[in-house]
Amino acid sequence: MQFPEHGDPYNELYVNSQWYGLQPPDKQLDPAGIAKKRLDKAGNHKTVAGNYREAMLTVVTRQSQLKNQYHGKTYVAYGEGGLDFRSPPSSTATEASDKGKPGIEKGAPTKDLLTWGNAIWTGDVPSDVQPPELQAAKLLHDSGKGEIRVLLEQRKLSVTFTVQKTNTLPDVNAKTDWSQVATRTGIIRGDGTVPAWSADAQVRGLKPDVPGDPAKGVQMAFVQGGYEHMTSYAHPWTHWATLYSVVQMVNDI
Q1: Which residues contact 21 (CB under 8 A, 6 or more apart)?
Q2: Residue spans per domain, the chain
Q3: Residue 150's beta-bridge partner residues?
Q4: 159: β partners
Q5: pTM score, whole prediction
């Protein structure tokens, strides 16, 4: 099974209370009963779960309105792994070990910047089980730490699912087939937090291999590599991209 199946993450995942959905039970949504007291006091007869669904719909609707909407003079920079996943031209300078030799500032390798592109769960499911039967399973246990056990009631059989937890790969190089890696493990190159295919959304229309409608307003994109998300603005490559972008904006003014 793969979700969302029909491009509707709101109904298929976020407000789905089935065992494979993402809507938490009331006791997790409101463990101290604070939300219920507030809703009861308001007298609008809303339930905790109903209030959650409304809030999620507001978020999803707002996200849809923001999609591809950028200021008309937007410049972006982001990391999509390390430089080692690319096949460099023969004339490209490498990191210098001796003073006086041409080189580039050091960046982290791709293996240190891997992140999650998909959440993949695996379990000991009999080969003849079809998705409808699996979707109808009854939740027996959720560890809250990446392990779920469900009951296939017709078979009186329990199945345990475990999520892929470790974002490490034994070998990463310029020949790595990232689409295959993402399919098998859910892991993709990125900046340790944001996967490359999410960050790429802001360069639609600028970067030829990124599908989708153009990201209107984005003037230039610095597609970089070698730095981690949280400390990205500590890296000299981001410094240069930011300085260049500010100069362009000031020049336009």
Answers
A1: 12, 13, 14, 15
A2: 9-66, 72-90+104-115+173-252, 121-163
A3: 139, 159
A4: 150
A5: 0.77
Does residue 4 have a cis bond before it (omega within 30 degrees)? Answer: yes
Q: Are 77 and 220 in contact (CB under 8 A)?
A: no
Q: Write the single-letter amino acid at 161.
A: F
Residue type present at position 87: S
d(Cα 50, Cα 229) in Å, to the nearest integer? 35
Rounded distance, CA 229 to CA 221, Å? 16
For residue 25, cis peptide bond before it (omega within 30 degrees of 0): no
3-state helix, strand, coil in the chain (%, to 5): 35, 20, 45
Residue (of 197, 193, 226, 252) closest to 75 by Cα position: 252
Q: Provide the phi-psi class of 45: left if phi over 0, else alpha when psi is between -120 and 50, else beta.
A: left
Tens of each residue's pLDDT in the chain, 253 residues: 889 999 898 999 999 999 999 999 888 999 999 999 999 999 888 999 999 999 999 999 998 888 888 999 999 999 999 988 876 654 444 454 566 666 778 899 999 999 999 889 999 999 999 999 999 999 999 998 999 999 999 999 999 999 988 888 888 888 888 888 888 899 999 999 999 999 999 999 999 989 888 888 999 999 999 999 999 999 999 999 999 999 999 999 9
